[in-house]
Amino acid sequence: MKFHKSLIAMVGVLAVGASVAFAQSPAFFRIGTGGTAGTYYPIGGLIANAISGAEGKGVEGLVATAVASNGSVANINAIQGGSMESGFTQSDVAYWAHTGTGLYEGKGKVEDLRLIATLYPETIHVVARKDAGINSIADLKGKRVSIDEPGSGTIVDARIVLGAFGLTEDDIEAEHLKPGPAGDMLRDGALDAYFFVGGYPTGAVSELATSAGISLVPISGPEVDKLLEEYSFFSKDTVPAETYSGVAETPTISVAAQWVTSAKQSDDLVYNITKTMWDENTRKELDAGHAKGKMITLQNATTSLGIPLHPGAERFYKEVGALK
Length: 324
Known about the structure:
Shape: globular
Low-confidence stretches: 1-23
Protein name: Immunogenic protein
Signal peptide: 1-23
Oligomer: single chain
Organism: Pseudorhizobium pelagicum
Number of strands: 10
Pfam families: NMT1_3
Strand content: 15-25%
Keywords: Signal
């Protein structure tokens, strides 16, 4: 069945502008995202649909797909290894990979990593059981806390946040779960809190807030001011009241979600993908498709430049005046 669907999709792409399409094979462009319960996956689906060349839209001859993954580090590794053409990552992880520092200390630099676009702020959520008595990061000491799986950007940031308050994994009962399973354990009383990094509102947290009741743990205070001085890729952020049912306004911090690729991808292909990413049709799909879609703007596309832009993307941004 999957074979037939793929064949139909390829035939559909070839039918668009036959004079060009029959001269070339479809180009496949995978976008590594994250777990299906997070924000990367639905946003990746919207972008893949928008840039795919079908029904007279997108990049002619392109078949783009969003692929679920373990997140930032896994996506960068897949791009480096050639099993993905592109992927989403946190800005901190992209910077560490490209410079061979932080999480990538001693692992070598991913020198070919290039930016297509900065997408939106990724908020650090510390989701707690309403009755867990957790009112600050310091209160996580001795609690059962999931900090996400190894290979995710979330686990890196969780360790940094804990460290800012003088805690390590040894000070908590650490679990290593994706947000979906972590939420299930929280609902069942088997977990006190979990870290999640992603754009708000995220469906899994919204559902948990409605069905079981949650609190968001604030990430604020002098410890955080010091953290922001040390790690420039973090910014102050606020989750507005009632973003999640019953949860008051909560101060926290965020990183930027970025769409990255390899310098090995052709300049023309990435130029056309970037151009399509910011056209009127894509804008409509992003605005209508996800609450975070409205925050993905051309004005923000060239911010948080911790790594070089891909030459194809850079060409487009200079053409439209988004970059000097």
